Amino acid sequence: MEGLLPDLDVVRKDFPILARVLADGRPLIYLDSANTSQKPQVVIDTMVDHLERHNANIARAMHQLGAEATAAYEDARDKVAAFIGAPDRDEVVFTKNITEGLNLLANTLAWPGPHQVGPGDEIVITEMEHHSNIVPWQLLCERTGATLRWFGLTDDGRLDLSNVDELINERTKVVSLVWVSNMLGTINPVGEIARRAHEVGALVMLDAAQAAPQLPIDLASMPDDERPDLLGFTGHKVVGPTGVGVLWGRRSLLDQLPPFLGGGEMIETVTMEKSTYAPVPHKFEAGTPPIVEAVGLGAAVDYLSVLGMDNVHRHEQAITAYALEGLQAVPGLRVLGPTDATQRGGAISFEIPGVHPHDVATVLDTRGIAVRAGHHCAKPAHARFGVQSSTRMSSYLYTTPAEIDALVEGLEYTRSYFGLS
Amino acid sequence: MSTDLDALYQEIILDHYKNPHHKGLREPFEAEVHHVNPTCGDEVTLRVHLEDGPNGQRVGDVSYDALGCSISQASASVLTDLVIGRQVDEAMAIHDEFLTLMQGKGQVEPDEEVLEDGVAFAGVAKFPARIKCALLSWMAWKDATTTAQLEEAQ
Lengths: 421, 154
Hints:
The complex is a heterodimer.
Chain A: H1 8-13, E1 21-22, E2 26-27, E3 29-30, H2 41-54, H3 64-84, E4 92-95, H4 98-108, E5 122-126, H5 135-144, E6 147-151, H6 164-167, E7 172-178, H7 190-199, E8 203-207, E9 230-234, E10 245-249, H8 251-256, E11 267-270, E12 275-277, H9 291-307, H10 309-328, E13 334-336, E14 347-351, H11 357-365, E15 369-370, E16 372-374, H12 379-384, E17 390-394, H13 401-417
Helix pairs in contact in A: 2-9, 3-9, 4-5, 10-13, 11-13
Chain B: H1 2-8, H2 11-18, E1 31-36, E2 43-53, E3 56-67, H3 70-83, H4 88-102, H5 112-115, H6 131-153
Antiparallel strand pairs in B: 1-2, 2-3
Helix pairs in contact in B: 2-3, 3-6, 4-6
């Protein structure tokens, strides 16, 4: 098959879990990577090595291990900065996950400062957002009196841009949207939307939780007016560990935003009356950060860079095209979202009328196939397509065409098990 | 493989799923609750009507509207079969028996005398992800019944 990663068998050997045998001797077929990706040995080894040999708190321990741990943590920041082409490595803030990154922004915008949001201001999101890019903005609007607005969706699962000029207007303070949908798979025209948002002086936040694992990202090379002001993703979807995420923000903006969490590490000096704050990124990293997780994330993005994100993207497109073809051959199956593999990411949600997604997932699970069933934290997007939940397969760089064949066969079996003809 | 699957999807469960008993929302009722399973989005709206019987309060009717998988739908159907017409305390005892079965990790032997078609759910206890599906309407029923009793007490 054209486009697959060269030496896919060798790449798969980097991921020890892919050799797992499940109940009844079934080999694992892991098609839930949009939920969390599996980890290569190098990430596991890097974290173990750090814990075995270099563990200490960072930036404060006046001893050799402290220096080593600090260097490893800051080295991870350099690696992440290189991975997304950040113009400045100090613009990379380690968070707990993308959810924290989005909440950091939505919270700090409530406080006095050049970007404070208030009554009459508007926040624009989209109907295909993950709950983590909906709820923080609802909270901000409740707290400040601002108004939440959103792009609707077309029947084929794209953003309805017909009212873009009305939706993004001089009252718009923030446009926060997903780059690649976790449910529909849609790749959004984020450059075009950023351009419009910047025309009216709004900030642009990109949820790159599904984009960072799949698309090459080079912030520095983007045209100035198309570059987002902030971009976030989570470590565990880019073959890194859970517990660490990334919020990149334009330096001048991060400098202007007030702190989010207060505590150790984020200060310059503290008196009983008042404190001053450390420069970014430390201003936004209160308390002991997830050190070994950040170190593991550094190894993860290095691993992806060695494979080459262009190659990873090509692999995803090839597998996604093959999966779309296979899925659509299953009688009655309806794919939610675009059916052109070049316009979407590797998460494919679908429904089979007559079998509930939970039942689909359970039957597949007994065949060793791991998929997700439910609303995938995108209830409004499901409501838009008139379904309460869906089944989602999501591939990644280690997915093989044979695994897609097994999924399609499993779905045929599911249909017959539930008596659909 | 299909042994486990067949243990989960007993014929009785699939029958109740395809032809649910007592489905639909009816009058009269003293309490209505809406329960959701936040992880998957399954929903049930359930009403309880209590009536006075010779030996105390009885479950006069349980009516419901539910969206969800075969397990959650069939479980609601079996629930109504088991509790409608019973004394409330008897029905609560059946609820407790079902809960024990679901939380028993597959180690609890179900009592067919008490649970009737409910014994078919014994296999669900071996699928941790599905236990909440089976319990959704039972939790809703307990909530609605308690609410109805409180209303009455006031």
